[in-house]
Write a structure and sequence with these properties.
The chain is of the alpha/beta class and about 280 residues long. About 60% of the residues lie in helices and about 10% in strands. It has two domains: about 70 residues, Winged helix-like DNA-binding domain superfamily/Winged helix DNA-binding domain (Arc Repressor Mutant, subunit A, Orthogonal Bundle), CATH 1.10.10.10; about 160 residues, Glucose-6-phosphate isomerase like protein, domain 1 (Rossmann fold). It contains 14 helices and five strands. A five-stranded parallel beta sheet has the order 2-1-3-4-5, sandwiched between helices. It is globular, with a radius of gyration of 21 Å. Keywords: DNA-binding, Transcription, Transcription regulation.
Length: about 280
């Protein structure tokens, strides 16, 4: 397995929602990550005063392949240089400081998103999109802007991609979708009610489903066949602006699109050339 990290960020993201025994293990690891990476399952269970079964359950709660992957991710975190945490913008700050801080926030969000993305899941999602008759994309609010970007990209790549701003029209379109179609839903929280309804309808119609949510257990990530994750870092006071979280979602779309282009290069290049020619007004 290649160099990976993100174990500590994963634990921080879900710690508050874990059962008591798993929460004790997470708290111990977060307080002593260097020690945890040298332990066996039994040793960690003893140190956290829990059980080996609880350690295994924690790995499942983190959606990891096992304890070894968790240790490797934590080891990667320990080796990384420390970084400044995400911080919101305060009243009266200078434009110079805002530029600096927003740039840092964006970079931090992208780095954490890289840690949350599983390569196997990205490859499977791209394969499903390639074999789909149509791609139905859904998101509301800021996630709707990301859905629109995804539609533009995959249309240019030769996919029939649909994104409709009106949720009711989206449900109507999806109700007539074929079983070979794929649904892609985007929601930072993973709990947006309109998106849950869209996803449930897609499942009812037996479509393959892909979700993009923040890391952690959510209704949407649990319903989707392929859950893809962004950093779970919350944007505090100005959450409605959805700045860094939107950037992370766009990054995942870019990853999906560029992987699609790379995997199916010959087919896609022809489609991109035709798309470019169709909008080129030069004589």
């Amino acid at each position: 397995m290649a160099y990976i990290s993100g174990g500590l960020a994963m634990l921080k993201s879900v710690e508050a929602t874990l059962p008591t025994s798993e929460k004790k293990i997470a708290a111990y690891i977060l307080s002593s990550p260097e020690s945890a990476i040298t332990m066996t399952v039994k040793q960690l269970a003893d140190k956290s005063q829990t059980s080996t079964a609880a350690v295994i359950r924690l790995c499942k709660s983190l959606d990891l392949k096992g304890f070894q992957e968790l240790k490797m991710r934590i080891a990667g975190d320990v080796q990384k240089p420390s970084s400044v945490e995400y911080r919101d913008i305060d009243k009266g700050e200078s434009s110079h400081h805002i530029i600096e801080q927003m740039t840092h926030n964006g970079i931090q969000m992208l780095r954490e998103t890289e840690e949350m993305l599983r390569r196997d899941d990205v490859d499977q999602a791209v394969q499903d999109i390639y074999h789909a008759s149509s791609l139905h994309i859904f998101g509301v609010g800021a996630s709707g802007l990301v859905a629109y970007d995804a539609q533009q990209k995959f249309l240019r790549a030769g996919r029939y991609a649909f994104y409709l701003q009106d949720p009711h029209l989206s449900y109507t379109s999806l109700s007539n979708a074929g079983k070979n179609d794929v649904a892609l839903v985007i929601s930072f929280s993973g709990e947006t009610k309109e998106t849950i309804q869209f996803l449930k309808l897609a499942k009812k119609n037996k479509l393959r489903t892909i979700s993009i949510t923040k890391y952690g257990i959510s209704t949407i990530s649990q319903l989707a066949d392929i859950p893809l994750y962004t950093s779970a870092t919350e944007e505090a006071m100005i959450r409605s602006a959805a700045t860094s979280s939107r950037l992370a979602q766009l990054h995942v779309i870019d990853v999906l699109f560029m992987t699609y282009v790379s995997n199916y290069y010959d087919d896609v290049i022809e489609s991109l050339d035709r798309s470019r020619a169709a909008i080129d007004h030069k004589k």
